[in-house]
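Human: If only I could read backbone structure tokens as easily as an amino acid sequence. Take your time, and here it is.
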Amino acid sequence: MTHFQEARAQEIDYHEKLYRETPLFEPGTWLAKPVSAVMELLRQFEPSERVDVLDLGCGIGRNSIPMAQLLQRQAGGSIVCVDLLPLAIERLEKYAEQYEVGDMIRTAAADVEHYEIDRHAFDYIVVCSCLEHVSTLAAFEAVVKRMMQGTRAGGTNALLINTEVTEYDLESGMEHPGMIELHLRTDETVLLLRELYADWDIVIERWMPQSIVEHKNGRAIEFKGRWLTFAARKRNEDREQSRHAEAIERLGGSARAAQTEIERVIFRAGAVSSQSSGRFFGCGSY
């Protein structure tokens, strides 16, 4: 069994046991409340604006349910929730009905590493405690690139990642590298994300020590690491590039007709650019 297979098996066992035994929003657990940065970034959208959300690695709805409740009080929207575990999706669907947001949520039991994201389909994409569970750094980059392609102009990606993970056995006093699929150094991950999002506006970049006591394989373990929060907003000028590409595709590759359409799009964009400004996204606290 490879390291990835062993770590994946342990993660599945841990999460399935947790989801069976621990209700959503249970006080004293990490399911007790949504991640504040996730909610703060969602609040930066205009209340009068519909927001379509993709929640990758959604679990049983720690972030999905509160996001749906917030959008329900505003202009509405949708949340597509994706998780590897069918059990998690089953529980999330029940909680969505319990909290009366079922009509806003669509679900998929799928491996995020291979999940296809439609281009320009979402305003807000969240991936929380998920990217450290893919198989390789190349897979990490591929998921992020699909997120970027799936984001509309002016939209936001929020990435929350456990880095430099170790596990401290509270009984033996031994500390060793955490049993996690992909070990990531904080500084290297930040540099990679800066490179990937070079053409976006970075709105949050921070990390902090994290420590959570868990029970794994019958032993009390202190899970330690650095909790990295990285968020970026897609610049609005990307909308014009998208419209150029759509014009070429729509006109069936006719070079002359496509060029004429593009010139019209550019002219219109220039006329309104001096009157328009993008949304400002402030940094929320974790």
The chain has eight helices and eight strands. Residues 3-21 form the longest helix (19 residues).
